[in-house]
Amino acid sequence: MTEMLSYDFMQRALIAAVLVGITAPAVGIYLVQRRQALMGDGMGHVALTGVGLGFFFQTSPVWMAVLVCVLGAVVMELVRSRGNQRGDIALAMLFYGGMACGKMLVSMSAQAGNGSLESYLWGSILTVAPSDLITITVLAGVVIAVTIGLRRQLFAICQDEEFARVTGLPVRVLNLLLAVMAAVTVTVAMRVVGLLLVSALMVVPVVAAQQLTRSFAMTQAASIGVGVTVAVAGVAGSYQADLPSGPTIVLLAIVVFAVLSAVAAPLARRRHRAADDRGPEVCEVRLPDQQRGDAEDSVTSRGLAQ
Prior knowledge:
Keywords: Membrane, Transmembrane, Transmembrane helix, Transport
GO cellular component, one term: ATP-binding cassette (ABC) transporter complex
Pfam families: ABC-3 (PF00950)
Shape: globular
Radius of gyration: 25 Å
GO biological process, one term: response to zinc ion
Number of strands: 0
Structural class: mainly alpha
Mean pLDDT: 83
Number of domains: 1
Strand content: under 5%
Number of helices: 14
Subcellular location: Cell membrane; Membrane
CATH architecture: Orthogonal Bundle
């Protein structure tokens, strides 16, 4: 462990892993709540175009991916809000077109080969440069501030948009803001997890935490804890075993989900048995003397009348 921390690239990779472990579940819990678990996967496809543009124009692939992914997220949210049948076709074209365009641009670039593209698709602890770490830190700070600071408002629109609109919340703005935060999270995580697996880190820690928690706040906190744990352990394990960091992190997250699911099942059965043993709760209402006397007279009168 001491030897691993002596390398600058491992220090950067572990810091990036902590930030990704926080931001991915912090956004993913809202996507799971509104049944859009695969939204991050689609954004990863779109972000690949930004990576290709960065290589093609010899600029920062991360910032180009942020720009393209945010634009794609806005388009996806506008299509989703209309809710028509053609929306699915439009989103499919956007996702697959993003992947195809990204690969085409990378192949046309003079400075990138298949190895460079692989690091963005599957994640690589060796590619987290100091400039990338600064970008990840800034973007992660924005995502954490929004997703936790606006937790009540974002939860309201994910739970019931119509009720949130009646209460006066700016539903359209909040929906767009959530889509943009999800897009930023995809670009934050692509160096560590990879564009093809970032959606798993946004979803699996959340559903793992749901096995043991009941409230939204507890689920968010527990999912962030799971995300940070598997991200750091995955980066360390990938270094020790010479494996790609993205698949290692995702497989660890799935293992944690399986373990928590196995633990949650007997606990749920025990709670159900305890509730059955207690029986239904009886609510006893005591009336003042005068009201009780009037109620008894009323019951007696009805009985005599019958």
